[in-house]
Every structure is written in structure tokens, then in C-alpha cells.
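Fold this complex.
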Amino acid sequence: MEKTIIKKVGAMLGFDPNSCDGILCPGGTFSNLTAVLTARNEACPTAKEEGLTGAPKLVAFSSPGAHYSVKNAAHVLGIGTENVIQVPSNFDSMIPEELGTLKHISLLVICLLIWLWHTFRETNYRSKRGR
Ligand SMILES: Cc1ncc(COP(=O)(O)O)c(C=O)c1O
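Structure:
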């Protein structure tokens, strides 16, 4: 079942279903942890065996409405909660011009966390509908 769903979701996102791979996660916290772990290991291929000693300072960009589990993932993975940089965004998207005002020279940006439907939007959607 997992392989079938991954192929179908991959095809929906425009990937070749036969070259898609992935895992199904039991919830948002685990999904965010897996995403940040994957990005960290891609940026620092020796992190698993050697840790982050000697690695550049890692940062992740997220939106201000990002779920707190993103900072938890940064904590657990040795990135640091202060290194999750919340880039100002409007209701639907990050404001790219704001990236230029952030001072992160000599940092390694490992990921940009985005949500198709994150908690902030869902909360607003619910409050607009009186739920
Ligand atoms: C974007 C996002 N990430 C993580 C979570 C946490 O999910 P869970 O409670 O399944 O761990 C939520 C829950 O609403 C969420 O909306």
C-alpha cells in the first residue's frame, strides 16, 4: 500500500512514478522531523556518523506560522531552535524580498519548509467558518 500511495502522490506532483521513493509518516511531527533530517543529511553527508562538529552553521527557513514541531526537529537534530529563521510571509506565501534583509552570510541553508495547508492557514480557515 505504501509503495502504491507514494507512486500516486509522486505522479500527482509531476514526478515519474517509477522513480519515486518515500515513506508514509504517522503524523505531522514525524513528517517534519523526517524532512529536516533528510535536508540535514543531504547538506552534511557525514552528520550521521560524525555529528555536526566542523560543519558550517546550519539554518532552515520557515514561515512565521510554522508548526512548533519544526523547532523541535531543529533541537533534536542539533541544528538549534534559534537557527530556524522565520521569513516574513503574507497569508499565502513567503515574501522573497524579505530574504535579502536577513544576514546569513557563511551559513548553510539546508531547507525551506513550506506547507500546502499549514496550521496557521487551517486555524484561520476554521475561525472564518466559526469552528
Ligand atoms: C504543519 C503541521 N505540522 C505538524 C503538526 C503536528 O502533527 P501531529 O500532531 O500529527 O504530530 C501539525 C498538526 O496540526 C501541523 O499542522
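The domain at 2-128 is CATH 3.40.640.10 (Aspartate Aminotransferase; domain 2).
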